[in-house]
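Narrative of activities, Objective 1.

The group set out to show that a structural description can be obtained from nothing but a protein's sequence at a throughput compatible with the screening campaign. Below is one input-output pair from the validation batch, recorded exactly as produced.
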Amino acid sequence: HNLKTARFSGNVRATYANLKISCDELAVTYDDKGAILSLRANGKVEVGRGDAVARADSARLDARQGLLILEGKPTIVQGPHRIEGARIAVDLESGRLEVMEAKGTFKIGKGGH
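Output recorded for this entry:
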């Protein structure tokens, strides 16, 4: 495989699948057919999907595994819910989060109908 990397810096804004990404630096690695294999974002990283927003110092996205890994004080906020940890991995297919050293606040519904 011939891997190519494109680098962007400044006030970078990108879209991948249904993710909106903004950061200071972005490196995109793709194969010889132009398919994106991975993204690596650094500096004031913000990733939005639907009404959820993730912020971190750095993020990398593995397109083949469908995994987004946030590091450097990562935080995800969705409505009243907030979670932070040492490292957060997001499965983009299922939306499942794996958080190392998690702490957060969640709003629990009052129940009833």
